[in-house]
Design the sequence.
């Protein structure tokens, strides 16, 4: 075991909240170590609906969460402006919907009061004809529609931008590193023992340990002898590798829940389900029933949905605060900062619950609690300080593309990930060649991610720069991608093959539930192309 | 609504394009069309459906990629194993890219 390092704070969990805490505390001048057992944002954050939204449905039972969420969303869209984009929704109303158009418009009128907080436009009411003009794919049964505006974001990049800024301000950030034990000195928690990706064990002393492990919060709390109870909820999404509808759509499920079809960059997310989950958090499967439940809801308003080919599914578990009796969908998205001194674990703080759209304020309040404990007085600056890449205006994509000899479309995608730092990514390599044509992604950006963005596996590269995220699901690019990453990380030929095999087997688990829905032609091509690996 | 979101790059499909849309994005990126015909402007033919059709909301910023000569799109479509109508794909991409 290597000699222990020492930090002011150790953060356990590299989702958006943990990354936000690490950034906040680093900016306040504290030394921080953040540890993530998988990859940055690979858990709940990455399997979200990719939205910074206020949550109009919480208005019915949790007004305060909607307000706080909208307020923090306003900060996030300012500090992450190169990553966010407006997502406009149509909420189609059918004759027998739970809410008729008057009720729905009333709800939107209330939500309009919150919209300025996050720099969004108020709703518009559309007749059936107007709605079908805007989106010709809507059913002819339509009564009318109202609109709703939110913000979209790539959560993987949002998480990583927080990690990146934390590191730029002195933090140490380790992914693929699992905390196996908390170090104790009597009633005090004084650090962590962890296992790195290569299997080596290390210790780090810390004056405060923050548990920001999302749905794994109870597991980490138990290491300190503390009991934090959550009511974990499983949510799945279907992923289509292209834009489907002109605007986002909201649909009602057979049991009266609202689900969304959200168009992001070059793909569409359709979801989410919301079910109590009692299983293994590290192995959450998607069932065909869940897929059909979502398709059934959208078929009612957008009949052509079954003509489209989903390419994979995502699944994650929300770390919802515990409450007895309530139906999953009505559970609050509130959060709680817990100081475990009273549980006999001095120096141990948990942040539980919450949602992506208010990660920054969750991180701020957690950091405030840490600073109180340390007697450290420094103000939070994360509400106004831009994340890396959002410091200045973007160069027109066509000009950037021309300057570096890459398609303008590749430049658009590059800027969506790196913002005003896009040219730095291309500067560091002479390769403007495209490795993943669906995305499209340059070889230089992938090499940069391996060198500077802690990409250690192909799945990390999928999250960080979108490799293999398109319609072919990697059939055309993963071998070359492994070669490029491997060159940076010193992989042997067999390590490259192993990396591809591991990626294809992992992504199969997400694809299998939707293949029955017209994906077999693609799958056969991928299997054929990579047959040598079997 | 369409006007409101035009500055954000959102360009809706027309009813005729909507009808065709599921077929326009069915590309499995096998690359056979690229063997049958040349590029459309600077763009490889498989990229039209597997990449440009995906991002139809921001294509106006990438219009320079699809300016230039047409390849033999009929021959390219004939080579496609999943029956992608590449002539229509090219027309939609160019219309959206024109803004």
Sequence:
């Amino acid at each position: 075991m290597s000699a222990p390092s020492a930090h002011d704070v150790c953060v356990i969990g590299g989702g958006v909240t943990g990354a936000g805490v690490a950034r906040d505390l680093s900016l306040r001048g504290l030394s921080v170590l953040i540890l993530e057992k998988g990859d940055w944002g690979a858990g709940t954050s990455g399997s979200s609906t990719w939205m910074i939204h206020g949550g109009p449905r919480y208005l019915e039972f949790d007004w305060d969460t909607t307000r706080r969420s909208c307020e923090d969303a306003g900060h996030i869209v300012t500090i992450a402006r190169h990553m966010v984009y407006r997502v406009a929704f149509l909420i189609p109303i059918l004759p027998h919907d739970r809410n008729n158009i008057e009720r729905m418009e009333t709800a939107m009128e209330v939500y309009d009061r919150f919209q300025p907080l996050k720099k969004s436009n108020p709703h518009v009411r559309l007749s059936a004809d107007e709605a079908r003009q805007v989106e010709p794919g809507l059913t002819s049964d339509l009564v009318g529609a109202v609109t709703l505006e939110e913000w979209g974001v790539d959560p993987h990049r949002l998480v990583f931008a927080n990690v990146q800024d934390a590191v730029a301000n002195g933090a140490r950030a380790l992914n693929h590193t699992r905390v196996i034990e908390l170090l104790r000195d009597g009633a005090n928690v004084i650090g962590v023992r962890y296992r790195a990706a290569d299997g080596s064990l290390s210790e780090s002393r810390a004056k405060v340990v923050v548990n920001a492990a999302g749905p794994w919060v109870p597991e980490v709390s138990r290491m300190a002898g503390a009991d934090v109870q959550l009511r974990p909820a499983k949510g799945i999404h279907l992923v289509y590798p292209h834009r489907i509808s002109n605007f986002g759509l909201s649909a009602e499920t057979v049991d009266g829940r609202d689900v969304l079809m959200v168009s992001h960059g070059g793909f569409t997310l359709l979801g989410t389900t919301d079910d109590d989950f009692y299983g293994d958090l590290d192995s959450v499967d998607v069932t065909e029933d869940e897929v059909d439940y979502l398709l059934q809801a959208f078929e009612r308003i957008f009949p052509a949905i079954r003509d489209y080919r989903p390419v994979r599914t995502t699944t994650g578990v929300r770390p919802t605060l515990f409450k007895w009796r309530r139906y999953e969908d009505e559970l609050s998205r509130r959060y709680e900062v817990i100081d475990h001194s009273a549980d006999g674990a001095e120096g141990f703080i948990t942040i539980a619950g919450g949602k992506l759209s208010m990660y920054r304020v969750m991180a701020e309040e957690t950091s405030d609690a840490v600073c109180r404990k340390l007697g450290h007085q420094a103000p939070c600056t994360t509400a106004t300080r831009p994340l890396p890449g959002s410091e200045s205006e973007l160069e027109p994509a066509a000009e950037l593309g021309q300057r570096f000899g890459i398609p303008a479309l590749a430049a658009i995608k590059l800027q969506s990930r790196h913002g005003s730092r896009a040219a730095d990514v291309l500067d560091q390599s002479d390769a403007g060649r495209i490795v993943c044509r669906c995305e499209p992604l340059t070889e230089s950006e992938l090499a940069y991610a391996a060198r500077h963005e802690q990409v250690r596996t192909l799945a990390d590269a999928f999250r960080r720069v979108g490799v293999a995220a398109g319609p072919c699901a990697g059939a055309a690019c993963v071998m070359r991608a492994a070669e490029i990453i491997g060159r940076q990380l010193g992989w042997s030929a067999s390590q490259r093959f192993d990396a591809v095999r591991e990626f294809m087997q992992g992504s199969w688990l997400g694809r299998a539930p939707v293949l029955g829905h017209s994906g077999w032609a693609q799958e056969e091509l991928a299997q054929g192309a990579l047959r040598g690996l079997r | 609504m369409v006007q409101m979101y035009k500055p954000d790059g959102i360009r809706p499909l027309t009813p005729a394009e909507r009808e065709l849309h599921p077929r326009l994005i069915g590309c499995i990126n096998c690359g056979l069309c690229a063997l049958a015909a040349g590029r459309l402007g600077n763009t490889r033919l498989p990229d039209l459906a597997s990449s440009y059709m995906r991002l139809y909301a921001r294509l106006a910023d990438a219009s320079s990629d699809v300016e230039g000569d047409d390849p033999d799109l009929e021959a390219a479509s004939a080579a496609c194993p999943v029956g992608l109508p590449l002539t229509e794909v090219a027309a939609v991409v160019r219309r959206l890219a024109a803004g």
